[in-house]
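Justification of resources, computational component.

The compute hours requested in this renewal are based largely on the per-chain cost of generating structure records like the one below. Each record pairs the submitted sequence with a full structure-token output. That output is archived, and it is also reused by downstream analysis tasks.
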Amino acid sequence: MEITVAEGSGIELLLFLFRVNNHEKMSHNDGESYEQLSESVLNARLSISRKSLEWLGKFFSWEGFLGLRIVPYLFMDGSPSPSDLVAIIRKTSPERLLSMFLCDDFESPGEPTDVFVKSLEEDERRALGYVSSISNLPSSDRYEALEMLQHQAETAGSFIELLEYARSKLDSFQGFEEIIHSSANLVNENLNSLGSSFIPFLLGIETKSLSVEKIRLYISASLGGSVIKIDVPERNAIISLAGVDRISRRSLLFETRSGASLAGAMSERKSLDLLHLLLQSRQSVSSILELCDLHSHEVVDILAALSRQGLVIPEIQDNNLVFRTEEGIVDDALEEIRSQIIGKTGE
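The structure output for this chain reads:
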């Protein structure tokens, strides 16, 4: 299986627009980047025109996110920059753009499909029938899709305006390219240490998804602690879009620690329960879920926090990611906490 960690910043235009429209639904997943994201979203909302705000809701709704449907066409094999992405969309005909927004099949758009989609602009009944036949389009977005089909040139022009707007606003998102680059390095370090088994742990996908031939992972500053998975069955591939906070929170690499950080990692009862379980035997995430009354995201986040403090050791066993700990590891951690407390008291 081929795993590519891509840093193409052009995709950030789409994800920033998705974030501006859905910030409140995503913020509970965020970590360190929350304040900067909130400020960027607020600035964007205060300066966007009413008409563009309406189109933003149509293209980047929480349920349908039509604007993200162009991702497999433009980011499966390449990583266009923001300016290149805008240029590509400008050269794309309105009917081809609508085809990418609405087609069920990644491979479908082509001249015959374009001609068909163009014909729907003047035939409301056929357009309605076509929209109703799109299996993966939520019912809440069907009216907007019908409107787009009836005003194809306006739809394309409004989409380009939103991309240009996002490009101008990302300038205020200070250092986002450096943040993405740092997170990409962190993912690669985890992959070098643990192999492809780290991917389902990071993305929250089932291990069977690793049977695909290709996983293309894009790192996003706009997604914060969230992740979006786009299946591309026609290419036996997955495109995953992961926020920088998700990556930092689920990294398993050992970090420099202190008594305070060790105490913090063990401060919750759930963490102590997992340590107790791992003292008995090695466990995978799935086996822990069978034994404990915890949600999968809780188990993953706790295991990652304990791993970064060296309290548990991630290993690969029979191509699966498992975790273990030992009494000596716990004893050393407790002694480190004790030494820091005594040292502080002595001062």
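Residues 327-346 form the longest helix (20 residues). The CA atoms of residues 148 and 335 lie 65 Å apart.
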